Amino acid sequence: MDFFSKMKDAEYNQFIEDIISKKPLTDDMIREMLSVSDRAGLKRMFDAAVQVKEHYFGKSVYLYSFVYFSTYCKNQCAFCYYNAKNKIDRYRITPEELRVLCGELKDEGVHMIDLTMGEDPHFHNTPENLLEFVRIAKEVTGLPVMVSPGVVDNDFIKELRKEGADFFALYQETYQKELYAKLRAGQSFEGRIDARNNAKAAGICIEDGILTGFSKMKLSNGELIQPSVSDDIESAIVSIRGMQKADPDQVRVMTFEPQPGTPLAETAQASDLMELKVISVLRFVFPDRLIPASLDVAGIPGMTDRLNAGANAVTSIISAGSELEGVVNFDRDVSLNERERDAKSVIKKLKEMGLERGSQESFESYLNRNKS
Ligand code: SF4
Fold this sequence. Notes:
The protein has helices at 9-20, 27-34, 39-57, 95-105, 121-124, 127-141, 154-163, 177-183, 189-201, 229-244, 273-285, 295-307, 343-352, 360-371; strands spanning 60-70, 112-117, 145-148, 167-169, 205-212, 250-255, 292-294, 313-317, 356-357. By secondary structure, it is α/β, with parallel strands linked by helices. The protein has one domain: TIM Barrel, CATH 3.20.20.70. The longest helix is centred in the N-terminal third of the chain and has 19 residues, at 39-57. Iron/sulfur cluster is lined by residues 73, 75, 77, 80, 82-83, 118-119, 150.
């Protein structure tokens, strides 16, 4: 499809102006954009997304340190390596270990600490255990803290707010209810939305996210998840509309990567082109919001592609010496000191790209503005 390549220069420039002035896109426009496949059209689409990003954020990129502090989980998401049924080695770090880790992270140049866990009953059933982790991360680093605790109730969320949590990340993964039921088996669709809305109402910034790349993939019971690429496109449209409803402060998309030991283990990895296109569309739909480029799918080269498609934050940064996990962990087999997922490697690459680490002040003003 030639949505971008058929535009004359004046139309293309007008399109960018319209996006900057927050003119909404129709579903048909999104459908056409996600169907773009010619090289010139893709380049124009990614360039437009970068221009919109630069209008709002300049060359600044924000960095988040990923601390996956417990890999225990009571749930059975079909796409996730850490689902309760997978027979893997798991860990849960102690408050003392977190304190040491945060001491190492505080001068690395990241803007925020992302405390992530599976739905580990140790923290889920005893909020104080998680609140203590938020307290430690804030005290030791002095940086904003994002928590990704899974679905928690409103009282828990209010406590997180009191403890000073700045961001609440909870990914719906899809707003198509049927697909959700296959991916997040046994978990409430509405309960997840409610938790995010409660966090927003409590004055915490919220992040939502979706997965892409399920077309033609089969569950281990033989069930086809999405028969064709156009299902992936329709799914992305429904999900983008779903995400819009809560006015999220950060939105992400990630390509599904088959994980060993899960019901989707035997499927082939999709190309990440759809993810790049969705990043650009997210930039058009949420022009002034944070959009992450995760290091977890394809490392630094993947980060570069995502920043060039309109992203403006880098997530899943893990210190060179850390033994903690990522979520997707494309580099699960790579030795720790060769992972190149540390802040120094990211900042070096940003400079080569003509980008820069944004100031802490500008990041925190974004948070404060959005929280209020
Ligand atoms: S995605 Fe999260 S909730 Fe689902 S199994 Fe994995 S860790 Fe648990």
